[in-house]
Design brief:
By secondary structure, the protein is mostly helical. The protein is built from three helices and no strands.
Length: 81
């Protein structure tokens, strides 16, 4: 959650970047576009995470992360039209 904790963010990116890139590519984006979208996701997460509170009634962290990712893909598609 702490944007200053570079070690934790490095671990987070190492864990989730490959998963997110594959997910975004499966949504029809080329890899270079998928990497741009994932970069934007990490920027958004860096801003949102300090105030993030997990509501277990709504699901797990990964459920929320996939929703953020889906929204980023939709936003990317909108900018291309």
């Amino acid at each position: 959650r702490n944007p200053e904790d570079q070690e934790s963010w490095g671990e987070f990116v190492a864990l989730y970047e490959p998963l997110l890139v594959r997910y975004v590519c499966k949504k029809g984006l080329e890899e270079h576009d998928a990497r741009d979208v994932v970069q934007n996701i990490f920027i958004a997460l860096l801003r949102k995470m300090p105030a993030f509170e997990l509501d277990r009634g709504k699901g797990r962290f990964r459920t929320w992360l996939w929703q953020v990712t889906h929204n980023a893909v939709v936003d990317w598609a909108r900018t291309r039209k």
